[in-house]
Amino acid sequence: MCDLILNPKAPKHKVMSSFQQLACPQNLLSTLQSVRQQVLDEGHSTFSKWQPHIQRSEFLSSALNLACYLALRHHDLREIQLALMPWGLSSLGRIESRVLPNLDAVIATLESLCGQEHPHLPHIESFFEGNRLLQLHTDELFGPPPLPRRRVRIMVTLPTEAASDYSLVRDIIKRGANCLRINCAHDDPQIWLKMITQIQKAKVELARSCKLMMDLAGAKIRTIDVLTPIAKNRVFREDLILLSRQQPGLHKAELELDNFQIYCSNPEVLEQLKINSLVYIDDGKICTKVIDTDYLFPDKQKGLLLQVTQTRPKGVKLQSQKGLNFPGTRICLSPLSDKDLSDLDFVARYADIIGYSFVQNPADIELLQQELSKRKVKKMPAIVAKIETATAVRNLPELIVHAAGKQSFGVMIARGDLAVEIGYQRLTEIQEEILWLCEAANIPVIWATQVLESLVKNGAPSRSEMTDAAMSQRAECVMLNKGPFLCEAITILNDVLSRMEAHQLKKTPQLRALHSW
Q1: pLDDT at 432
Q2: Computed from CA positions of residues 488, 419, 226, 245, in that sequence, does the dihedral angle turn out positive or negative?
Q3: CB 382 within 8 A of CB 408
């Protein structure tokens, strides 16, 4: 009977029959004991493979819990969850940070119901150890909790004017920002240093803690040198776009084009594309597929011919410096460009946290760690891995182990690129899974991209944005991007997070007294 419950491929009528058998507490107990043993065996097997990569002793218990959580989630436990509910027991829906202690607590209660003597309840300290470690790792990454009423930190991306406008930086920190972000894809070290000077001054004046995260630009693939057909400035469905391996050999004025032509900032990736490969432009505003990989261009060069499969009914302008994504194609590029390596000299010296763009596998983590060790900084910066591709999602457990096993570490759910890479319809599902996995590893998560976007840019939030902001308190940090109404957005986000904290902690509802009725 246990095998039926744990086998997601079992026929539905057999699963229902086994569910009916689980109404008996003795059967339910034996099933959970079997689950626990399988989780323990598989978890320890995975943990033993990870252990050589873990240098920080304080991460060992987190890694073991993560391994056990992965083992547990390999099974479909929904029938067990339903069977536990009538007995008033935990449905295991909040098991992320305490896999074995939670199973042990339920098993001990069932043992008592079944009349077995001396049930083995877990110690209260072990039951809440995961919560303690997550708080510890969050404080290590972002500094102490910001306010008594707000657990979740607020991260703010600084605009260029922060280098010269001290009042802006001061206001951002005063309103509740706990971490400021500098995007190294923009500006230069001289501008960054001016921003940092403003931050240090404001921290002293306000007597506030505020961490600095600097994002390495990474291997962001973009459009360059857009050539436009005569009398046509927008791309429509079924249009053709020429994607060149080399920059145009002729001046724009010398070409009479029937179709748009663009050059890719990293032309080597084009060799990895095949017929029917997907190419998305400008955060998916223009969706195309490859219909020819050896097309002869008007300037006698060869490249790829793309056909537009989806865009807005009124068309979209095809512009330079817009991102290119390749859903379904595993792009092999170093996550550290030559620019990143140059920027890292500055970043390693000044940043508390390094935002690592387009990290995909454990070797990418080790590459950054090696580069940091070469620079012999006084204090090793923390790393935040930006999860932007399907490959990064698949490799997330190993990314966590290789990074957090050596230094302070966090994860950013970079919803912009991630949505384009995996599909918008899967974004919510994957976002939840990343939150669960990181909680199992006691790793803080940053909820990022387009939070309160309408408010930041236009001064008025949409209703859906307010709901998104409220749900973001399930992470440990929420990131706001720059815009003219940034300071107002910090105030509102601070209020929303503080209010929601009284109602919900991660996935657990908080039964605060209701005052609306």
Answers
A1: 93
A2: positive
A3: yes
